[in-house]
Amino acid sequence: MGPADHPRLASEAPLARSxxxxxxxxxxxxxxxxxxLLGIALGGISLTREPKGRRHATxxxxxxxxxxxxxxxxxxxLLKWWATSQI
Length: 87
Known about the structure:
mainly alpha
């Protein structure tokens, strides 16, 4: 099977590609949790509609969940620090 036999992700699984892009955007804009929610939603839709994008959709969902937990911990620590430093 040569390179021409492999499907292109952009043309055959656009939702999976979008979910992955949004999940990666969550690294920078994750404090508002919108990219993570979009990554999870688009990944879930892609899992049901695009069988060729399953790997990327699963990666997007996993990345979104990890970033949600990570940003939750960071923001929780920041809130705790702010609450204890106030008089």
